[in-house]
Amino acid sequence: MAGMRKKLGAVVIGLATMSLTLTACGGGGSDSSGGGGGSDGDAIDTSTATGEVNYWLWDSNQLPAYQKCADAFHTANPNVTVKISQFAWDDYWNKLTNGFVAGDAPDVFTDHLSKFGEFANQDQLVDLDPTLAKDGINVNQYQPGLADLWKSQDGKRYGLPKDFDTIGLFYNKKYVDDAGIKESDLANLAWNPQDGGTYEKVIAHLTMDTSGRRGDEPGFDKSKVKVYGLGLDGNSGGPNGQTQWSMYTGSTSPAWTATDKNPWGTHYNFDQPQFQTTITWFKSLIDKGYMPSVAAVTGQTESTIFGAGKYAMVTNGSWSTNALFDTKGIETGLAPTPIGPSGKRSSMYNGLADSIWIGSKNKPAAAKWVEYLASPDCQNIVGDAAIVFPAIPSATDKAIAAWKAKGIDVTPFTNQVTDKTTFLFPITDHASEIYNLMLPALDNVLSGKADVSSLTEVNNQINQLFQ
Amino acid sequence: MSAATADVATGTNASGAGATQGAGRRPRRSDLGVALLFILPALFGFVVFYLYPTFRGIYFSLTRYNVLGKPHFIGFGNYTKLFADPLFWNAMKVTVEYVVLNIVFQTILAVAIGVLMQRLTKSTAVRAVILLPFLISNVIAALLWFLMLDFQVGIINEMLAGLGLDRVTFFGGDATAIPTIAAVNVWRHMGYTALLVFAGLQTIPDYVYEAAAVDGSTEWRSFWRITLPLLRPILALVLVITVTGSFQIFDTVSVTTRGGPGSATRVIQYYIIQKGFQEGQFGYASAVSMILFIILAIIAVVQLRLLRAGESDLS
């Protein structure tokens, strides 16, 4: 009897344990949602816009400017109220996916190039073209190339551009002065994958160990680095290396691109020699003690470490300008990315857009709000706030002027666009899966746990996803 | 979560006791109706929130499903894929490594603290202080430790550097990441576990210790010969709860290393979330969940058998 009871007890506890573990990922029971509007091939009648629109974004720095837009929008359209919610990047996408399933996703949300393809494939977004055509919205009013990024493989348009970003070289003015380097010199650095060129020379000279010896001096102790010449942003950068290495791989000779075509490529090129030699050079900066290891920066935010005076220079995006310039006690400068073997600089060119969820119960107001967000009225407000570069050129100029008024020259970012030295963020299917394959693989290469040639095998795995 | 397990466990014991008591009486049918009525609310919750999702999870594990579309039945496809998936096996390895470190140190420390509290002081103030880390939210605790242990700006590494020692990549190093995460969670949970142990110790009557003292037993000997054997049923329960919880480590990883560097801290729950919510492969994620469930169920049953949780040596 006692034995029997014991067994029963064990089984009951086992059952309870089972439920505890399984329900963690049970997922809600829902049939294919979406439904809602249904008539996504047709134009939405924005003239009947009324009621409330829910709008999501992830960048808290941008919230005040967009709240101003929402207020101005409400003044112009008293029948419509926009309710803005902000969630940090890491929660944002999970919440959004859950919202799609549960049927309470926002009417309009800020969308990212790496995500919208999957959403479009799953029929979660409204095709904007018919509505834009009906309302006479000019999709060519944005910085060149931005609007077409949001066309899916089926030719439908799922977002209207709101802003763009490029990459620049931020530096600590004091460290640069102390090293006897002229700021004007930083604007003309050149790198190559063999010896790193003048770029590596500057990085080496800016690196300093705890006894004050510089990275290019004899006796430099790379195990006791006080200031790294160049920072590393959180990890190896995965398949795009946007703030880590994309400015180098984009200026190789022969030219390297991540995919066979962009957007919607179906073949990745991580097996090509230009890419692998560039990564080998990039890793050598870690080995020489000029740049921190992946282990040292795991999970970090680069701007925090720059703010603590541990980095002389960092490569980062225009969206980080205020974070890097507003640090107390540190005077920051901005230079363009270095010139590569191709003879040109290079910067990844990425942009955000606003999309309408297919399940929105208030599509007329949602469409009206998206049109407003993508109009000069709102983008000028955002430009004046000097937080990001709005997608409309005249509003971009306003942002440049607003930053200039704060004493910051942001033209190293915008010149990349005017000089046509940008390349687009690679957009393909299977984006998250590719990220989760490439990130650990490249982490391991930069940590010296795997040879750079191991990326060829990872590249094969990635390309198999498209078979 | 743990409360549910505890309820079920005590529920079993109570019904067992009832059965022995009622053996002499004639069973009355009306009792059954009332009993069912009382069980009904709990049963409803169990079915809706545990049983139904569980079976749905089992079903999803046999499908290709991205949440937004309809699930396609693919039989055991996810399972065959899973057994050939190096990331899954790595996740299992990393998780087991974490569980072993976490449970071993947490249990030893908790028993030590519990016994010290029992034998030295009954002060509620001390008990409150010991419980303090548990009252801090998991995420806050993880972030604070992450900041303090940062390679470049963390206070602990600044101290190491100040002493002329080499800095340590606590969260970022291959060899140190999992032990660091385990240590943070030992720090947070040992007080709570110690309190459970302490509660268990209250059930051991003082006369046993007095008798031992009369026979000339030392504290050390009493601990091994009296405390530990009589604590066994409680320890079994504590272990089932903590091992189950430990296998589901997620929050600390999610707010610190995010599975990196490489795959060094990609624990099984993090892998499930990555596959399910980031990559939209809910069928595959459900299959991994199923494997985790089977492992936990086996561990729970084996543990309870080995530790004879249903019996006490007191009676």
Automatic annotation (TrEMBL), chain A:
CDD domains per the UniProt record, alphabetical: PBP2_TMBP_like (cd13585)
Entry protein name: Multiple sugar transport system substrate-binding protein
MF-aspect GO terms: maltose binding
GO terms for biological process, alphabetical: maltodextrin transmembrane transport; maltose transport
Residues spanning the membrane: none
Ranges in a coiled coil: none
Record keywords, A-Z: Signal, Sugar transport, Transport
Signal peptide from the UniProt entry: 1-24
Species this chain originates from: Microlunatus flavus
Family to which this protein belongs: Belongs to the bacterial solute-binding protein 1 family.
InterPro entries (UniProt xref): SBP
GO cellular component, as recorded: ATP-binding cassette (ABC) transporter complex, substrate-binding subunit-containing
UniProtKB/TrEMBL annotation, chain B:
Region (Disordered): 1-27
Record-given protein name: Multiple sugar transport system permease protein
Pfam family, one: BPD_transp_1
Superkingdom per UniProt: Bacteria
The keyword Kinase belongs to this UniProt entry's keyword annotation: no
Similarity comment text for this entry: Belongs to the binding-protein-dependent transport system permease family.
Record-linked CDD domains: TM_PBP2
Organism whose genome encodes this protein: Microlunatus flavus
InterPro entries: ABC_transporter_permease, MetI-like, MetI-like_sf
